[in-house]
Write a structure and sequence with these properties.
The chain has helices at residues 5-24, 28-36, 40-69, 76-89, 95-106, 111-143, 145-154, 159-179, 184-194, 200-217, 223-251, 260-276, 289-300, 305-334, 338-352. The protein is mainly alpha-helical and 353 residues long.
């Protein structure tokens, strides 16, 4: 792990963004003092709502893997939770590979095929987040032109340009998503081209891994599955928006705005942008990019820098603690070693990468 290039890149980006927060928004003492003044009941309630988000994620993943394994033998929610726990405490998003391996141990399914379904999950998440970003821009324009103009002025962009920018990620993602299913044989030829210098046996290994991987991807050839995955993706993110809203109540953020509608727009924008920032490399748990862009989003709505940073860190903590603790407990009851999962998953990640 210490020799892994992605690990050090993630550390670098996390340090850059965390340092930017401390120098631009608020210091550690200010953030800590603000958080400790909150009513803990709100944090407990938000944590419970987030558990519903994990349940919806498990149900969505079940839609993708059932065509591959038939009826599941074990609880899928526990596998999802362990995967999120691993992502929260381990670098370079190795939790995705741990989730793939952990499911392969509990169910009869190949790891590359499982990883293919996780890729679909992430694509569905990006699709819904881009759509929500577009809707937040649309709602800002319809419900509250004041806040739309404030955001427009804060980033020095024309209103139509801002509106187009909120829609373009959704449109671009749809185009990429459709093109990715255009020609499977073409991709196989590309693999053969880039591995021409390898022995035929090794080339066949790469092609076999790709075919198993694409087996997971191509469960989407069924339009009913596509529809179900999209429908189950909405409550996943609605739960996270509700988490943000509950914590906004703890911070009394509505007192900074003119209406309830503006608060909803702010929470949608915060949830979308902070989570899309997860694309940027970071250390375990996404610390750094999530917090910087979350705080930046709130500040663009006119919130105080200290409140923006403290709110973002609080939401991140609420999203981090439940799956981490529950995931560790699940592995303890399952008598499964996290170190064994890490070792196996590292080998798998090296093969897939």
């Amino acid at each position: 792990m210490w020799k892994n290039y992605y690990f050090w890149v993630g550390i670098l980006f996390s340090v850059i963004f965390i340092t930017s927060i401390l120098f631009t928004f608020a210091g550690i003492k200010e953030i800590f003092r603000t958080i400790t003044e909150l009513n803990i009941i709100y944090l407990i309630l938000a944590s419970l709502v987030y558990l519903f988000s994990l349940w919806f994620r498990a149900e969505r993943w079940k839609i993708l893997i059932l065509p591959l394994i038939g009826k599941n033998k074990r609880n899928i929610l526990s596998v999802i939770t362990v995967g999120y726990m691993a992502n929260n405490i381990l670098p370079i998003r190795i939790g995705e590979f741990i989730r793939s391996f952990y499911l392969s141990v509990r169910e009869e399914i190949s790891v590359p095929a499982t990883f293919g379904t996780i890729v679909i999950e992430r694509l569905a998440d990006i699709l819904i987040l881009c759509l929500l970003l577009f809707l937040s821009g649309l709602f800002s324009f319809i419900w509250s032109k004041e806040i739309f103009l404030m955001i427009e002025s804060s980033i020095s962009l024309d209103g139509m340009v801002l509106f187009f920018l909120t829609f373009s990620p959704f449109l671009i993602f749809i185009l990429i998503f459709l093109l990715s299913f255009y020609n499977q044989k073409f991709i196989e030829n590309i693999i053969s081209l880039f591995t021409f210098f390898l022995p035929k046996r090794i080339q066949n290994v790469f092609l076999e891994i790709y075919k198993k991987f694409i087996k997971g991807i191509f469960v989407l050839s069924n339009p009913i599955i596509i529809l179900k995955v999209i429908l189950f993706s909405f409550p996943v993110w609605i739960c996270e928006i509700i988490v943000a809203y509950i914590i906004a109540e703890a911070f009394d953020l509505i007192s900074y705005l003119n209406s309830f509608e503006e608060l909803i727009i702010a929470m949608i924008s915060f949830t979308v942008i902070s989570n899309l920032a997860g694309i940027i490399p970071s250390t375990s748990g996404g610390w750094g990019p999530y917090d910087f862009f979350g705080a930046l989003t709130l500040h663009s709505f006119g919130f105080d820098p200290v409140i923006s940073a403290s709110f973002t860190v609080t939401v991140h903590i609420v999203l981090w603690i439940p799956p981490t603790i529950i995931g560790i407990i699940i592995l303890w009851f399952d008598k499964t070693s996290i170190f064994q999962l890490i070792s196996k998953s590292k080998k798998i990640s090296n093969i897939i990468r």
